[in-house]
Amino acid sequence: MLLKSPYKLVFTSILAFSVMLALMATHAEEIVSNTNEEISKEAAFTQNLETALVDIEKQGKVVKSLEDKADGATGLSKKAYDSRLIKARSKLLEGGLSFAKLVINHEASEPELDKYRLRAIEILKSYYGIVKGSGDVIREQIAAPKETLSAAEQAAAYSKIFAALDTINHTFELYIESLDLLKLFEQDVNAQENLFIANLEERAANGSILLEIAMEDEAALKASVSAVPDDAELKAKLHVASNHVFNLAHALSQNLVMMNDLEIDTAEYQQQVLSATGEITKEVFEEGVISIMYREWSQKLWAFLSENGPQFIFKIILFLGIVFVFRKLGSIAQRLAERGFKKSRVKPSELLRRMVVSIIRNTFTVIGVLIALSQIGINLGPLLAGLGVVGFVVGFALQDSLSNFAAGMMILFYRPFDVGDFVEACGISGLVSDMSLANTTILTFDNQKIIVPNNKIWGDVIKNVTAQKIRRVDLIFGISYSDDIPRTEKVLQEVVDANEMVLKSHDVLIKVHELGDSSVNIILRPWVNTEDYWDVYWDITRAVKMRFDEEGISIPFPQRDVHVHNV
Predict the structure, then answer these.
(1) Domain 401-464 falls under CATH 2.30.130.30
(2) CA–CA separation, 405 and 455 (whole Å)
(3) Statement: 470-551 belongs to CATH 3.40.50.1980
(4) Which pLDDT tens digit goes with each residue over 533-565?
């Protein structure tokens, strides 16, 4: 064992050294691989930058070529070159912005990338001239249509104008983005930003004036259409003018968005846009806009009150006075109608009385309101037409309610029951406590309030328990087969005669009704006033039991005889 130990130690050392060399080789391969990958990515990024620069230079040459051709062209050729030039400049701007974003988003800071940073800054700084040139070209193409043109021709001309304005807005948005990128490159853009701000402010001021003029033209056309409502061309021009106002307000609003991005006060213009379109945006709730709107509305309200205040107050007093007088007349007519119903020999139903009284009162009120509206200068023709349309729509939507109303009218005319009657209908029994043309309110005997639609009642069998003044009480009493029938009949007659609520004017029926299994059944049928029905029913039932006990007449209970046979 002592001789083998040195060989074992040498073998272990060689094995450990081999493992260490293998690990170092693997790590070295990973380092080389990562390095190669980074070199490959960096090379691809550089290649992308070079490709972008080549594209920018090519697009710059295209722009320069189109500028030269446009300068020497006239008429339709110039318009064609100008349109191509505008699109080429927009493409050049977009390419430069993409190049600058690639440079900024790259995290590397190697010296060899400095040339790309400088190139990106140079491109972005040249944008103001490109944007201004595109704006000048577009503004040369814009020309307001003549008033002598037809509505269709004006609409086509305005469509071209606003398409050109959208192009200007797009180039301006690209320029704002270029300023933001220059700030990320830590460049001073105050001078360029001030020039651009002045351009935006001038554009907003011009747009505001154009919008104001367009709104005045629209108001004039509205007055013309009111004077000549059948002129189709006037209506078409009014439609074009309204669209023109909306599009101008939209264009001004887009300009204001860019001004807000540059922290320029736009409160006054925002108020004008709101007045033109009526659209409420988040900018309206800015403090400056709200204060301007409040000041303007206050001034308008004060001017209106100063000029029309006395006349306006007089009209209000006249309106309220006429309505008050007719309401008083309605109340007087209501009292006269109620008095007439009370003195009438024919007693009407409660539903009819309520409906007539309500119609009289409401008719006077409606007539008073209509007369008052006409006296203060409101044209009732369109109002009545509008009420007719609303009535049709409401009637269509409330078909079920109208069905109840129709059933209520049938109940009103045929009077199957009235308030205070006990009825059975729709499986419900109780006292009718209230009636209207739409539904009937029934109080059950345990004091539950049930509201039933009239069409349910009218479509079912109606049992009016209290419709007649007198009713017959039907009673049946059973006696034993061994009891004396004549004596029993005499006792029943004496009980009926002793009850004061039984009507003496009607004969009482006392007869043997049937021979039952366990008893001889005798019917007792006295007549009573309807309101005394249950009192008589309960009193006679009690009195008969007591007299039968006194006379020894038995009231048998059911019994059976069972016979058992032994087999």
Answers:
(1) no
(2) 8
(3) no
(4) 889 999 999 999 999 999 888 888 776 666 677
